[in-house]
What we know:
Helix content: 55-70%
Distance between the termini: 12 Å
Structural class: mainly alpha
Strand content: under 5%
Amino acid sequence: RGAGSTVLDLEDFIASNLLLPGGSLIFLLFCVTKWGWGFDNYLEEANAGKGIKIARRLKTYFQFILPILILFILIQGLL
């Protein structure tokens, strides 16, 4: 971002501020929307086997709150 920047600074900006939050948003939306895997299928797969289970009551959090938070992080990285 300005004088003294190198190609590696640009690559760091792209990876940290665009690819990581953007990829996590795409992955999240794939897991919780009907256009992707769907939350019920995701929950069934995540709760298979032994260990801590994901509660069904977190559906609203995964579908609405978490995407807004990730989008906020993505926008903050661009400003």
